[in-house]
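Practice problem: Flavin reductase like domain protein
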Amino acid sequence: MFYRPEEGHGLPRNPFNAIVSPRPIGWISTRGADGRDNLAPYSFFNAVAYEPPQVMFAATSAKADRGNTKDSTANIRDTGVFAVNVVSYALRDAMNASAASLPREEDEFAVAGLEKMQCETIDCPCVAAAPAVLECKLTQIVQLPGEANFATFGEVTGVRIRDELLKDGFLDYTAFEPLTRLGYLDYSRITEIFSLKRPA
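Answer key — structure tokens:
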């Protein structure tokens, strides 16, 4: 089939996310200027640069109590910092619970039953049980075409990795099985890996 997005796809669900998959999940934790903490997963997320290390995530909807965006973007806009928590397969239910659209004053950490840890380089909480955490300072927020599409970019100022996940100096993916987002309501986990040597 072929379709133009502006004309519709005619399928039961939009296939766009299913085509661009798997995608890593940026489990973004923030602290608002009012001191309230927030945690939410974003599947429009990735690393975008090595030196200095940088990441981005995009919020694509809005909350009634946040104007034209979500709590995460609004908090980062106010404070200039955020943390990216890696989602393991073991944390899948907690991640999913934190995706609920809650009132601004409710704490997703509490709703998901997660212990918080304070970041080292920024004033922000992170998920204590996360396999790895990237502490980030905001570099820019870009408004994309569309009513509530905002891409947030940040420079990584601190990296936390659980010691037991490092094997001979390398991160062992199969020890924590990173969760990935597919399309629709579907997810996957990484349980097998293989290597390819790049051509000279």
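Discussion: Helices lie at 16-19, 71-79, 92-97, 108-111. Students who identified this feature from the tokens alone can consider the problem solved.
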